[in-house]
Specification:
It is a single chain. With 331 residues, this protein is α/β, with parallel strands linked by helices. It folds into 2 domains: 112 residues, 3-Layer(aba) Sandwich (Rossmann fold), CATH 3.40.50; 180 residues, Dihydrodipicolinate Reductase, domain 2 (2-Layer Sandwich), CATH 3.30.360.10. It contains 13 helices and 15 strands. The strands form 3 sheets. It has a 7-stranded mixed β-sheet with strand order 12-11-7-10-9-8-15. Strands 3-2-1-4-5-6 form a 6-stranded parallel β-sheet, sandwiched between helices. Strands 13-14 form a two-stranded antiparallel ribbon. It starts with a strand and ends with a strand. The structure holds nicotinamide-adenine-dinucleotide.
């Protein structure tokens, strides 16, 4: 399988590694900044395309990976589907549900063949939590808590065009909530503050948010996000049910325990950020993409999953703005 990579930034390099690691080939790379594409192609192989049309016209390309800024995803997605390519697209699908729906209209049934980059579904511990829940380990789930805290805010330029913390960051957690609950949230309440950096407020965003959701059967879910966390990249999930709880804790750098005059049983630090924390999950999502293609099966996480997560994020934004609970249909 040969893949054209659109984008050559932070996450694109992770995908180049994942594509190669899964035994596929990088056919070529396109980036608005040619030098960036040259660096990634130099490191992982493939040619450098002058534009998207050239990448899509390459007859050796069977699949396209979209890893460009969010506001470019739907245009590239529509073009890639029209060119008859299989598509992997980074999250979120777009900055607005309306544009994502227009895209869905244009690509039609191909939407079910598009994989969205919700890499956390491929994390071993989170997947195990979901499996044990489905096996009935804690009986019926009553409450799900998802904690996601970044070590430090991304550059303000990135945040200004990211679509805001709910669409850029909590979008992963909205997806994990759906993935684990197995039931659609139908009520969303969110509150947001600027507690970390006033510059984040100046670009119209929040850096600290709490979301509370409820499903039709009454199961509750909290999502807690911060753009700053003094002790590293904090990623935890707890499912609480009638018979007990399942907790996915942060993996530590190693199992060393340190005892000092003023500290007992101090443990090693957390991952620094998403690149090291989810390295295995990023690799696993590409293995899954190719395995499903080969088996003629739909991807593990589709355009419709991406759309639903975006709808929840947009409901969260409305809730913050209007200071009320937003209702959604279960659909
Ligand atoms: N799944 C994850 O864990 C994860 C992590 C980070 C980013 N992302 C997503 O990946 C996307 C890219 O984020 P990033 O952090 O890699 O950003 P980035 O800024 O590091 O990289 C974006 C790259 O796209 C290039 N570019 C800009 N406009 C372009 C265009 N019109 N056509 C082609 N190339 C263009 C830029 O030159 C840059 O090299 C975003 O949608 C983001 O939400 C996902």
């Amino acid at each position: 399988m040969r893949v054209a990579l659109l984008g050559a930034g932070r996450i694109a390099e992770v995908h180049a590694r994942g594509i190669k690691g899964a035994g596929a080939e990088l056919a070529g790379v396109y980036d608005l900044r040619r030098e960036s594409a040259e660096v990634v192609a130099g490191r992982f192989g493939g040619r450098v395309y002058g534009d998207v049309a050239e990448a899509l016209a390459d007859p050796s390309v069977e699949a396209v990976a979209i890893a460009t800024p969010t506001d470019t995803h739907v245009d590239y997605l529509v073009q890639a589907v029209a060119a008859g390519k299989e598509v992997f697209c980074e999250k979120p699908i777009d900055l607005s549900v309306a544009r994502a729906l227009e895209c869905l209209d244009k690509i039609g049934p191909a939407a079910d063949r598009v994989q969205i980059g919700f890499n956390r579904r491929f994390d071993k511990t989170f997947a195990r939590l979901r499996e044990r829940l489905a096996e009935g380990a804690i009986g019926k789930i009553e409450n799900l808590t998802i904690i996601s805290r970044d070590p430090a805010p991304a550059p303000i330029g990135y945040l200004a065009s990211s679509g805001g913390i709910l669409k850029d960051m909590a979008i992963h957690d909205f997806d994990m909530a759906r993935f684990i609950l197995g039931e659609e949230p139908v009520e969303v309440f969110a509150t947001g503050s600027v507690l970390v950096d006033p510059a984040i407020g100046e670009v119209g965003d929040h850096d600290s948010v709490s979301v509370v959701m409820r499903t039709a059967s009454g199961v509750q879910c909290q999502i807690l996000n911060s753009r700053r966390c003094a002790y590293g990249y904090d990623q935890r999930i707890e499912a609480f049910g009638e018979k007990g709880s399942l907790r996915a804790e942060n993996p530590l750098r190693d199992e060393l325990r340190v005892n000092l005059a003023d500290t007992t049983d101090a443990r090693s630090e957390l991952s620094t950020f998403f690149l090291d924390r989810y390295a295995d999950a990023y690799a696993a999502q590409w293995n899954s993409f190719f395995a499903n293609l080969k088996a003629g099966k739909p991807p593990a996480v589709t355009f419709r999953d991406g759309l639903r997560a975006l709808e929840l994020a947009e409901a969260g934004n409305r809730s913050i703005a209007e200071r009320r609970v937003i209702e959604l249909s279960a659909r």
